[in-house]
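Here is one chain, start to finish.
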Amino acid sequence: MLNKWIFTLIVCFTQVLSFAQDTIPKNYFRSPLGIPLFLAGNFGELRSNHFHSGLDMKTQGREGFNIYAAADGYISRIKISPWGYGKTIYIDHPNGYTTVYAHLQKFKNNVATATKTYQYEKESWEIDWYPADTLIKVKKGDIIALSGNTGGSGGPHLHFEIRETESEHPVNPLLFGFKIQDNIKPIIRSITLTPLNDTSYVNNKSRSQRFLVSGVDGNYKLKSATLINAYGQIGVAIETIDKLNGVGNRNGIYTIELQQEKETIFKSEMKKFSFDESRALNSLIDYQLYLKQKIRVQRSYIEPNNKLNIYIKHKNNGIVQFNKGENINFNYIVKDTYLNTSKLAFKVNGNINKKTIPATIKQEFDTTFSYQDSNYLDKQNIKISIPEHALYKDLPIHFHIADTMIGAITPTYFVHNDYTPLHKPITVSINVGRISEYLRSKATLVHFDRKKRYYARGGEWRNNYLVAKSKAFGGFAVMIDTIAPVITPINISKNKNMGTSREISVKIADNLSGIKSYRATIDGKWVIMEYEAKKAKLFYTFNNLSKGKHSFELTLTDGVGNTTKKTIPFIR
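Its structure:
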């Protein structure tokens, strides 16, 4: 009896502890901006290859607004990159959360001082630094930076996140009580029904069929009066977005629920997610439809290797079985974070007319890869290694060889196509044969996408094979890059008087393998030169440089070691 009582107590304590850990504190964090909050993007919004992990807060189309610490804590990480988040600050708070402030223009106060010291120690503008927890402490409301447009930002704004410190999982900041107006119900634009095997059809067709939707004030219906007929195993998907008061931006949805005859067969919730899983967004959406038509429909069925934790309820992975003569009523219920709700009711008839089904041409495949296993392809001087769980479902693979492209030293090997997403990178190895050491040193493996655009992936040599990683299927070849990067001065020239100039700026470019590193000095001493990748621009901001003659020197190195050096004397 005592053991039973102890067991019950432990279960209750565990449940209470779990509830406490999952309780989101309201009004603990202040706004990181001192202006009214309007969003250009919200949490969970569908982006390219990932979910948006925070809030994009508008800054009135300009830079330079004060950024405030959202709560007491210490700065646990400072990252500066020409890509991604640009200049970023991470603050750990005693309540178990971390706030993230990205695309910053510049750091302020002791944050700026400590960062500059670290950059000079490392002789690198680009850093990823984890200061000691006692080095840069902050109080709620301290000014830590100015808002900006650095990194991969498409315009001035603040990207703000709240993460669980221990797991690093981003959590929906709108659940924390920030004052953002939203009484607009989600918008539903269309649904899609997709046959999921060779014996399934929608309106007697074996490919996806899209049906447009109309409605107002949260009540939607199919636009066309045409009946939907389906047979076999079918997946249903929805195209839906949300909007907020006062802005025109498209935002993501919080919950999507699909009911079959009033029983919930699928429900997703955008409360939090893992960065490790975020790429599975490409399995959540119809990836091929997005690449071809830029339409994102969210599937209400789950592919076998889609491990997203946003799925909180499903029956048979959301897959619906339609039998002849069976008519099924469905309801979509879509909500935003503030529980504004939209609904769509529709009916699908279980029906098939085999007389009108067009004959299908049997396709030949080289092999079929299993999503559960690691897979290996070895064909005519190319090897492809696919790790287990890199695919979202079993995949029949096509392979063919195309002509050698200009600048390449191998044919182009096409492995399947980039309409099929990958969750993990694959390893590509191409046999180049015997070439000179010089050409080996200038070789890079390139990836060709569906539009025949190519991107250098670098690589390392293993005997006569050049080996590199790729995050997509498509075409692969080896190309030679012997052209050095280019430096084009913007505002500096030989012996120019720079006394009234705020900075030294130059344009940089490379033809193939990309800029790998750069180093700038003035009078032989390393200086901080910032890289604004969107504009292909490097710039040094003058800081306590003495009057007189000086010498500016910049060295650029590309991905295969081609180097350019430019020295320019100037007067200050």
